[in-house]
Fold this sequence. Notes:
Elements: H1 21-24, H2 27-43, E1 47-49, E2 59-64, E3 76-88, E4 93-100, E5 103-113, E6 115-121, E7 127-133, H3 134-147, H4 152-155, E8 163-164, H5 165-187
Antiparallel strand pairs: 1-2, 2-3, 3-6, 4-5, 5-8, 6-7
Amino acid sequence: MREIVTIGHPVLRERAREVTPEELGSPAVQTLVDDLVETMRAAGGAGLAAPQVGVGLRVYVTEVRDNPRYPYKPDLPLRVLVDPEVRPLSGESFEVVEGCLSIPGLRGRLRRHAEVEISYLDRDGERHVEVIRGLSAGTFQHEQDHLDGVLFVDRVEDPRTLTSWESFVAFQAEAFAEEARAIVERWGS
Length: 189
């Protein structure tokens, strides 16, 4: 388990650097990957990027399995992404409510591309290219942003949509769950 750094920490605003082939197989990077997975699961996140634990490398992990924080998100098998690239496949987008483990207790509305292609190395250096749609596409875009020093609050167009977790649950969660179901129905995962 590693400590998750929060907004204001400089590493969250810097572009993370690529992982060299020599580094990828190193005990330090392999331990980082294991720690990211463990920390993400313990915190109840859908993803976690290396900068969020204070490490400026282009690495993140994603996974959703019956996550009580995201009951509307479809399951997403564990992925380890090293030096990933995310490319929108269409101009279509949707509005989503996001939060972030590095900005505890805050949520806000923003737009994400509905369909993306992700290209990345896994922890063993194997190249993968996948098309990801719907809410899962939003998860990958959120984590990719972390590698570029961008936080979800930077993408919130209307700051009046910012809300505490408690107020989101009390006043918006039910309506957003319906919106999320429509996104899943339209785009799949």
